[in-house]
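The freezer alarm interrupted the setup, so I double-checked each line after restarting. Inputs confirmed:
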Amino acid sequence: MAKKTVVRVKVNGTSREAEVEPRLLLVHFIRDILGLTGTHVGCDTTNCGACTVLLNGKPVKSCTVFTVQVDDQEIRTIEGVADNGKLHPLQEGFREEHGLQCGFCTPGMILTAKALLERNPHPTEQEIRWGISGNLCRCTGYQNIIKAVQYAANKKA
Amino acid sequence: MIPQSFEYFRPQSVREAITLLEQHGSGAKILSGGQSLIPMMKLRIARPEYLVDINRIPELRYIREENGYLKIGGLTRESDLESSELIKSKYPIILDTAVMIADPQVRNMATVGGNLAHGDPANDHPATMLALRAEVIASGPGGQRVIPIKDFFVSLFTTVLEHNEILTEIRIPTPPARSGGAYCKLERKVGDFATVGVAAQVTLEASGICSYAGIGLTNVGPTPLDGQRASDFLKGKSLDEMSIKQAARIAAEDAQPSSDLRGPASYKTSMVRELTIRALVLARERASGRVS
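Predicted 3D structure, all chains:
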C-alpha cells in the first residue's frame, strides 16, 4: 500500500480533510469517506456520468479523478445544491416535470445542468441535449429531463 | 475497479516534473487530464508505479498566436479550445475536433497534450495535427526538441517521447489566406471513440487550384495515419468532385482498419472514403470563404 497523504478539500462549502491513498478515486472519497452517497458509481468506465460532481464549478466524472488531485480545490455534490433546505430551481424542475424515474442518473444530471445554466442561462433544446451528452439515462428517454432544465431556466429568468 | 498502488507527486514546475521522471524511469507516467490514463489504470492495463501530476503547472495552459504559429500548451483543456474565440474564428478544424472528443465532463479535464502523448490511434487530435503539419515540443533534461507530428507516432500507445520528456506544446504553422480545414468523425453514439475520423486541411490559390493538402485518419490503424498519398495527389489540382473522390479512394486504400465492435474493416474502409470526401468538401468551402 502506498503512503497515505492528507488532502484538504472544500466540499459543499465546508472544508473536509482526510488521509487517503493516492489511488483513492474521488467518487469513493465522496461516498465512502465523506458519506455523501448521492454521487453514484454507474459504469465505472467514464461513460455514464452518474458520478458527476462540480470541481471548481465545472462538471467532471469523479470516477476518473484521483482524490489527491483535488487537494485544496472545491467540489460540489448533489447534497450541496439545495440552499439551506430550499430547493434549487433545477430540483423543483425535476419534480414538476417528472424528470426522473429511478433517480440513479439524476444527481449527475442536476449538477451538469446547474453548470450549464450558469454558463448559458437560456439554452436552446439542442444546447441542453449537447450539455448533458455526458450523462446517460436508461429510464426517461431524456424528454422530461430537458423539460426540467427548461423549467429551471425559465424560473431563474 | 481499483488501480494498482502508486506513489504520487505534484510538481510545481516543468523542471521539477522532468527531474521526477528522470528519477523514476520507465515506472513513471505523467498525469495530465487523466481521461485516457485513469480508465486504463482502473482496468489495470496501465500500472505506473509513480504518477507525476502536472496539473498545477499553469504556464503549460495557453492558446496563442506567435511568430507565425498557433501555439497550444500541453495542459490546455479541450473545453478551453471550445471556448476560445481565436480557435473558433481562425482554426475551426481544431474546434471541429475538440467538440467531438468524448463528452462535456471529460472535456473539462482532458488535455491536448495528453490526447497526443497517449499515442492512441482512436484519439481525435492526432489526425487534425497531421493534416495541419503541426510540431510537438518535447521538454526533457537536455532542453527542448521540436518533433514534426509526422514522426511522432510509433505504434499503439507509443510515441517518440522518451520516458523523461513532457509534451509541453503543440504548434501549428498559421495557414495562409485561402486555407480551410475540417474534421469529420463517425461515431456510434455521442461521446464514442471514432468508428472512423478524417481531418482535411487545404490551401487554394486564387485560381482555385490546391497548393497544399493535408489529411489525417483516426482509428483506422495501429497509429493515427497520415493520408500522404491522397494529399500529394491533390496538390496542383482543382478540388472538384472528381479529384476529391479520387483522393478519398487513395486515403481509403492507405487505411488499415481492424474489424471490431464498431464494424467490419470493409465498412470502415468505405467510411474513410466517405468522410474524406466530406472533410475535403468542407475544407474547400471554408478555404473559399463560402462557409465559416
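Quick read of the result. The two ends of chain A are 52 Å apart (CA to CA).
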